[in-house]
C-alpha cells in the first residue's frame, strides 16, 4: 500500500496510509460512541448543567490560563483584583500554595492529568469541566460538568452541551467553552507553545525527576506518565478557533510573555485588563 509522509511546519507526523475513506464507518463509530454516553444518566445531568452556562457572560472578557513556564510571570494579584473571569487548565491547583488567586472554572480532558489530579478534583468546589470518561475517577457532584468529545475533525463547538472537539490540546477545549459562555474577547497567558522535552507527537512517555515544560517542576515528575504535545496539530485547531471567533465579531489575543505562538495578536496582560477596566467605567 502506498504511503504518504505528512510534515507540518517541519514536524513529521509519520507515515499515513493512502486508503479509502469510509464515511459510513466513521459516522457509525461516532454515532455508537455518542449513543453509549447518552445512555449514561450523567450525560443528561451534565448536558442540562452545561446549557445553563450558555451565553451567561455575553459581551465580557475572559482569560485562559495555560500551563507553560511563563505562567509564573503573571501577576496573580493583579488578575484577582481585576475580577475578570478565568479558566484554569489541568493542574492549575499547583499554583495554590503560593498565591491566593483562584480560577473561576477549571478544564481538564487528558486521562493522565485527571487520574493524577483526581484527589484535588474530588475535593474542590470550583466548577470543573472534565472528559466524560473521567467519571471512573471523579465522583459526580454539583460542580462537575462532564464533556462528551466528538471524533469529528476540524470542528469547533459553539454550544458545548452536546459534544466538544479536543483539538489535541485542552486549550482548544477551553476556547470552545469561552465561546459557549458568550465571552467576546479571550486572552491566553502561559501559552508558551514550545517544549524542552522532545519526541514524537502524542507519544506516552515516563517523566523525569522534574518537569521543565510546565509552570511547576512537579507537574509531570517522578516517573508519572504523560503525553508529548502535538504542537503542529494544536496550531491547526487554534486557527479554526481564531476563524470562528472572528466570524462572529469576537477575538482571541495572546498575552503570554514570550513563547512561540504567533497566530494570535499579541497584547500585554496589563493592557488587556486596563482596557477592561476602562470599558466598565
Descriptive notes:
This protein is an alpha/beta fold. The strands form three sheets. An eight-stranded parallel sheet has the order 7-6-5-4-3-8-11-12, with helices on both faces. The N terminus and C terminus are likely disordered.
Q: Can you tag this structure with a few keywords?
A:
single chain; 281 residues; alpha/beta; sialyltransferase cstii, chain A; eight-stranded parallel β-sheet; two-stranded antiparallel sheet; 12 strands; globular; disordered N terminus; disordered C terminus
Report how far apart the termini are: 65 Å
Q: Shape from CA axes?
A: globular
Low-confidence stretches: 1-6, 276-281
Structural class: alpha/beta
Strand order of the largest sheet: 7-6-5-4-3-8-11-12
Mean pLDDT: 90
How does the major sheet shape up? 8 strands, parallel
CATH architecture, by name, is: Alpha-Beta Complex
Annotation, overall tally of beta strands: 12
The number of distinct structural domains comes to 1
The CATH C-level class name: Alpha Beta
Amino acid at each position: 500500500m502506498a504511503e504518504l509522509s505528512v510534515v507540518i511546519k517541519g514536524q513529521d507526523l509519520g507515515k499515513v496510509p493512502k486508503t479509502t475513506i469510509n464515511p459510513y464507518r466513521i459516522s457509525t463509530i461516532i454515532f455508537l460512541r455518542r449513543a453509549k454516553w447518552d445512555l449514561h444518566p450523567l450525560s443528561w445531568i451534565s448536558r442540562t448543567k452545561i446549557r445553563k452556562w450558555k451565553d451567561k457572560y455575553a459581551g465580557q472578557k475572559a482569560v485562559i490560563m495555560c500551563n507553560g513556564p511563563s505562567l509564573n510571570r503573571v501577576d496573580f494579584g493583579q488578575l484577582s483584583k481585576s475580577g475578570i473571569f478565568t479558566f484554569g487548565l489541568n493542574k492549575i491547583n499547583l499554583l495554590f500554595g503560593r498565591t491566593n488567586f483562584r480560577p473561576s472554572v477549571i478544564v481538564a480532558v487528558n486521562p493522565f492529568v485527571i487520574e493524577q489530579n483526581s484527589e484535588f478534583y474530588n475535593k474542590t468546589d470550583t466548577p470543573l469541566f472534565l472528559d466524560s470518561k473521567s467519571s471512573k475517577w471523579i465522583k459526580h457532584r454539583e460542580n462537575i460538568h462532564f464533556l462528551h468529545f466528538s471524533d469529528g475533525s476540524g470542528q469547533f463547538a459553539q454550544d458545548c452541551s452536546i459534544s466538544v472537539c479536543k483539538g489535541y490540546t485542552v486549550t482548544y477545549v477551553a476556547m470552545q467553552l469561552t465561546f459557549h459562555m458568550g465571552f467576546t474577547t479571550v486572552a491566553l497567558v502561559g501559552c508558551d507553545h514550545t517544549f524542552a522535552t522532545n519526541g514524537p507527537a502524542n507519544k506516552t512517555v515516563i517523566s523525569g525527576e522534574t518537569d521543565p515544560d510546565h509552570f511547576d517542576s512537579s507537574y509531570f515528575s517522578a516517573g508519572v506518565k504523560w503525553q508529548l504535545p502535538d504542537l503542529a496539530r494544536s496550531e491547526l485547531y487554534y486557527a479554526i478557533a481564531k476563524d470562528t471567533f472572528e466570524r462572529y465579531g469576537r477575538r482571541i489575543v495572546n498575552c503570554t510573555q514570550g513563547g512561540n505562538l504567533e497566530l494570535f495578536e499579541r497584547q500585554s496582560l496589563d493592557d488587556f485588563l486596563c482596557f477592561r477596566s476602562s470599558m466598565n467605567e
